TrEMBL record:
It holds the Pfam family DinB_2. This is DinB family protein. Residues 31-152 form the DinB-like domain. Gene3D superfamilies: dinb family like domain. InterPro entries: DinB-like, DinB/YfiT-like.
């Protein structure tokens, strides 16, 4: 058995969850984000939901947390609401591209850090300042991506189902007429 056989399997899962076109559970993160415009990224389907832009920022934040912990940074943490769920009241083309680029870069950095690990024993070590192992943390980030890819897909579908003009993506009513098709996410 290879010294980092499990790490290599985890890298495959991290990559599949992020960008595979054949993930068995549904759309990967990249697939879920495909076709999202800046107006869609800033839209809320109700006053108490996050926008797609906020979700992507949140995903990036937790990837950075994971990378910093793998690098051994015991002090790094996400303690403020703005670090975890930054608000984006208006998202223009430049902002949306930057948010997506940061997610992409965090993916590359996460995979790079995982590739540097020399053996599977690292996975059983505990994350500094936490009561769980790196194995749990890394699988958690995979599960986090799956959850949020589904959330993005639902928001995207709801926004498209509202049949609004691009300029109308601002005020949403919880009673909107959503798409009545059977393709649910």
């Amino acid at each position: 058995m290879e010294a980092k056989e499990e790490i290599l399997r985890i890298i495959d899962l991290v990559n599949d969850t992020y960008e595979s076109e054949e993930a068995w559970y549904g759309p990967s993160v990249v697939e879920a984000l495909r076709g999202v415009t800046p107006k869609m990224a800033e839209a809320r389907i109700s006053t108490n939901t996050h926008s797609i832009a906020e979700i992507v920022y949140h995903m990036t934040t937790w990837r950075i947390f994971t990378v910093r912990k793998i690098q051994g940074d015991a002090e790094f943490d996400i303690k403020t609401q703005d670090k975890d769920w930054k608000k984006f009241p208006v998202v223009d083309e430049f902002e949306w591209e930057a948010i997506q680029m940061e997610l992409s870069l965090s993916q590359e950095e996460l995979v790079s850090e995982l590739e540097k690990l020399e053996d599977d024993g690292f996975l059983e070590e505990f994350v500094p300042g936490r009561d769980y192992s790196y194995y749990t943390l890394i699988h958690g980030i995979i599960q986090h991506d799956i959850y949020h890819a589904g959330q993005i897909s639902l928001i995207k579908k709801a926004v498209k189902g509202m049949h609004l003009e691009e300029d109308d993506f601002g005020a949403f009513d919880d009673r909107s007429d959503f798409d009545s098709g059977t393709d649910y996410y």
